[in-house]
Amino acid sequence: MGNKSSAPVAAENSGDDTGSGIALSSELQSKIVQDFNDVQVQQEYIGFQRSMLEERRERAQSEHEINVQFQREVKAWQKMDKQRQEELDNKIDDMNAQFF
User: Fold this and answer.
1) 3-state secondary structure string, 45-75?
2) What CA–CA distances, in Å, run from 7 to 1, 20, 73?
3) What residues have CB less than 8 Å from 14, skipping those under 6 apart?
4) Direct distance between the N- and C-terminal alpha carbons of the chain, in angstroms, rounded to an integer
């Protein structure tokens, strides 16, 4: 056939149930298995990368939401502090007006 990795073999000698009459050399079989395993590893690694990227995206989204909520709370505290300071300033002004 011209290919060193395969050779015609009688079906009854190969134990091949397909009856193709072709047996693969052990080197070619090993190469096919290795290539298949490489593809599996690559697919698993791609899946791992995707899950890591998704976790990173979720974490960034969560951090953003926490930061937005914190900024809202800070603004609310600042508003309350400003109102309280204005109340105190008004009381001081009233007391100064009474005594001076």
Assistant:
1) HHHHHHHHHHHHHHHHHHHHHHHHHHHHHHH
2) 7, 11, 77
3) 21, 23
4) 117
Two tokens, residue 27 = 């080197």
Tens digit of pLDDT for each residue in 4-34?
555 544 444 444 455 567 888 889 888 888 8
pTM of the prediction?
0.50
Q: How many residues does the chain have?
A: 100
Residue type, 62: S
- State residue 10's pLDDT score: 44
Nearest Cα residue to 15 out of 7, 23, 5: 23
Distance CA 1, CA 9 (A): 12
